[in-house]
Records
---
Amino acid sequence: MHQVHPALRQPITAADRVLQEIQRAIVEGDIAAGSKISEPELARRFDLSRAPLREALARLERCHLIERIPNAGARVVTLSTAGLLALYQLRENLEGLACKLAAEHMTDAEITEVRQLLDQHLSSQRVREGESYYQEAGDLDFHYRVILGSKNSYLINILCDELYFLVRMYRVQLGMNGPRVSRAFDEHKAIINAIANRDGELADLLMRRHIAASRRNIELQLQQMGT
Amino acid sequence: MHQVHPALRQPITAADRVLQEIQRAIVEGDIAAGSKISEPELARRFDLSRAPLREALARLERCHLIERIPNAGARVVTLSTAGLLALYQLRENLEGLACKLAAEHMTDAEITEVRQLLDQHLSSQRVREGESYYQEAGDLDFHYRVILGSKNSYLINILCDELYFLVRMYRVQLGMNGPRVSRAFDEHKAIINAIANRDGELADLLMRRHIAASRRNIELQLQQMGT
DNA sequence: AAGCGCCAGATTGTCGACAATGTGCGCCTA
DNA sequence: TAGGCGCACATTGTCGACAATCTGGCGCTT
């Protein structure tokens, strides 16, 4: 068996559990973007003391889901076009780098696994055409695999632990369910092919384009909501 | 006056103060790399309770200076060639991106300020030829300015808050004081020129080379220590 | 009536103690 | 004597209460 990434380990402590719950609540909008976080209220709601709650809040700040000001409390981040742009600028670069490194460091076995994963997603996606949740989970899964394949712990930490919840938040709250689903699969396929060919430069390029396309898709969504 | 970056704000709370002290202690090696962190001991040493101390530890984990395992405690990170390589791989990309964005977003006034900063460093460096501390501080200052010039808050956060203490730790503990000082200044000059010309592509390239050169320099140092 | 300062309520930061978990030594067994 | 089990100790996780700080509204002054 391969080593499980720290971020994926099952919750052990109370702080871990409440962290996951609040993370989900924020990402899915149960706790509204921009709203104030009250420590006493959350403590009552999840039936624990403020100590583990504050631990959880510290980690939420780490993945940019909340912003804290000393002596003034925490607020859920507000989504904005500027924020989305900044986030995706970073993702294009970082995941491009991840691809380049994955082309150097992934084992043949790992590449085979990812290909099997894609085939699996493809078949299940063909069946449930409009369903966006599976696609999204699958998309994240693909990206996760590639990022882990880079074997760069700092890069893995930044992308998987710190940025991905925010990416998911934008996706979920803007309701990504467009016709990009099948296109994305082809792009994933091309990327893993480049990695399998050990062509890091191409994999980098393809991933940057893939994310840029995804960004344009979301921007379009935002624009439509604005009008 | 320009807005002060959150990371640079003066300490308000007890957790902030102890964080800065421990950060310095780890970076400068007062607390040895790889050693275990004892919460009760540090609490006594800094004369405060464990609550703010744990807050500080959470932030130390955030900037990769310590590693925590639930119910088992925290250890100072151990420096390694692999870790150094991973860190600099990331820096090359991220700071390259920062340069590209800075070329797009820095104001003429900000560029002028950075140039004045460089002239200032050059003159004071000419005077104290071998002194490495000023050079290092100046180098970090230059990089900070460029990063802030990118105007991408996520990028700024990752580089200034999460990675730079680690970079400093490698530099300090490996005793960077070689003859690269004057070369580095020329490279800085070339980078800010490219930014001033709004040539993002060139600025990106030059910064990547600058950091790659710095990395090779440190690797050399490591190699010498190994023999 | 508008603006400033002050007070009350609520919230965050900090503390010391208790509960849960992990660690290392000594003892017993084979 | 080597290996495994169990207990005592130390450390981390959690709790409830107190202190410091911020927010909003009232009354006073001009």
---
Amino acid sequence: MYAKVIVDVPAKQTNRAFDYSVPSSMKGWIEVGSRVGVPFGPRVLQGFVVELHDTTSVDPKRLKAVRHILDPAPPLTEELVELGHWMSETYLCHEVTALQAMLPGALKAKYERYVQVADIEADGSPSMLLLLPSQERIIDYLQRKTKVKMEDLLEAFPEDGGLIRDMLEEGLLLEKQGMKDRGSAKKALTVFPPGIKIKQNEAASVSHHEETRSEAGSPVPAAESPADSAASREPLNLARLADELPARSHKQKEVLLYLSENLKPIRLTELMDKLQVGASTVKGLADRGWIELREVEVMRDPYANRHFEETKPLPLTDEQQSVYDTIAATLDRREHQVYLLQGVTGSGKTEVYLQAISRCLEQGREAIVLVPEISLTPQMVERFKGRFGDEVAVMHSRLSAGERYDEWRKIMRRQVRVVIGARSAVFVPFRKIGLIIIDEEHESSYKQEESPKYHARDVAAWRARYHGAAVVLGSATPSLESIQRTRPAAGAGSEYKLLMMPSRVAGRPLPPVHIVDMREELRSGNRSMFSRALHRGLEQRLQKGEQTVLLLNRRGYATFVMCRTCGFVAGCPHCDISLTYHQVSRTLRCHYCGYAERQMELCPDCGSEHIRHFGTGTQRVEEELVKLFPGIRVIRMDVDTTTEKGSHEKWLTMFRNKQADVLLGTQMVAKGLDFPDVTLVGVIAADTVLNLPDFRSAERTFQLLTQVAGRAGRHTLPGEVFVQTYTPEHYSVITASRHDYDAFIAEELPHRRQLGYPPYCRLILVTITHEQIPLLVRTAEALTMRLRELGAMEQGRAASCGEDFFMDVLGPVASPIPRIKDRYRFQCVVKYRGEASASRIVSRVLDEFAERAAKEKMLISVDVDPQMLM
DNA sequence: AGCACGCCGACT
DNA sequence: GTCGGCGTGCTC
């Protein structure tokens, strides 16, 4: 038997499967999706089995054997292996990178090398008998310690570098390589009363593997969990044993009596806590052999100490009911269908999700719920835990690596059937998916910025198609890509079906939104960042004891330093970007390369003293608030104040408890939050996003404004929203203020069509960087030409086959940031329509240029715009 | 990514 | 004459 294995080397040359023979001992055990240890060159690496065959085309003499299987059960399903392949093609990433993204970080391999003394007995070499004193010192050192790294050894014996090398050559020392997982199951000492048969949920996972580099030994399959010994013998009467103890051992008696009444395993710490005894008391009993003490795998449960109030399905409104019925019918027919559920904020989408999930579970199928990271708040978790209890696993970035690993193991063990989580939860190893829900589907956090640059929506659609499952994309402001797909395509029906929930559940009206023209403010002499209207609003809330949310988009508002006399702007010497002022350290820093310098007192160009930082960070808004309203209590939420684990929740809880008057923050305050006493929402500057050089900027602005507008007056108190802007006439501002999605779409779609942007085409961005401009430009031009050439050929081929395919290449031009870390950057953009063959063309051209690029130390990177490929 | 094999400058 | 620089190429 032979296995095709993708090895853990994310490089172009190794981005293919390698063949290995499968030892007979593994035959019943290895599967597609197994994580294995395989010899690769001189080392042993982690790999993933992607195929199993009875034949191989590789010369049998060159074949090596699979060394280990790393898990009791394959961590990937066949489906996920197939998905990984699809991802590598569509997003142009290495296949391992895609597969690795599906697993919790704990399963990522850690490789380490260390020096060991050779086994003298086995070796029997006569040279062993005569050792120099210095050799003996080295051997002694190594035998005292374990896992000594080569560099540590050389550091410990700085004089003996040559000697150590000789010893390695002679075989006195061996270099070994180890591989282990980054995280592992947590173990806890557990007390077993005698006579209790232990049920291990899972064979102990094989988490540690050692190999001698030269050794070609046969693999040892993971052992079963150690045989139950004392615990399964004939039961001892604990109560009677207690009598045998001397009178002064009353603590031990207590323990025995407790255990005789509760004949079940108990965590040592729990027992100690309950009976107020020390560890030595219990260990004493274990030494007598009356009880057994041993390490058992336990689950870390981040929600262990929380009680979740059980919630019953709520009665649905007519709107909700009809949406639910449609989804339920699709589920009942086991059909694949993507629904776009457009429901205004407060229309009760979550209740529809919950009931659809119930239906899905009744059918014995599983459900995945994706929410943007930011809205995975305790309230959201509570709602799902309250309805589905222990059937729910929660996955988000605030869990520790260990906690996340345990949630994932619950899924592997089939202990849960619902997963709620952020982007990466779309990969959970379910086998019978019936429903995938993506809440706030327009959110950009569904896009992964690092490789593999996937979009959770694409992946969800792919998996749902595979499983015959339904997808529900929910949003008040759907992405244009999704809206476009609800419209009938030429000659066919629509790809997605649109479901609408236009009214709010309790009939609460949406708050009035006032657009404030900041140019007007300036003209009438108000130089403050608060308009008179917003100022008045704040004043009123403070008087009435109501709360305010203030939103500031930091992007495009970075605090740069400028000389007011000559216009000099402090820039990074390595990147073409202005430096950002950091108040805490009083330094100027570059966000791209980390360069830092002291804040200057005088302008380096003209010597003027009139140098100051411009732009408005959240700190500056806070300062101004305190100045204008002495005594005001402000909670500021931005990257500076929320990096600490749990700080996010802490601030929000404080605000909810009315320990502050104003919540001030960036995007993160806009999303999914629901505070009853907030009656005023202010957007400091609506157009910062609008001015970004991004074709989606109008869409982003509309979405953001609509979302914040929904934050005010969610409960009994009526709300009010002020949007400050320098472009009050822009359609994204106007339509958002009227809560009018359709009007926005009607303006935006023609623009996109006219300029040939998504959703009318798809984009691939190719960026080339080099230290020298002339060579860079030449290469960029050649590459663009070649892309055009192949694009035209493909277009011709497609036309003759009657396929719809269009491809255009823009550029090359300098990138938006033309230099980073002393490397110049050029880019070209591939626009295409039709089947995804453009990515194949790009990847072919990149292959053609790879050799040349490597020679010149040129870096070429590709970004598939992962917004909607399917 | 590692690591080995291989061909040209400063040292015993 | 050798040690060692990192260029090139392979890993089942």
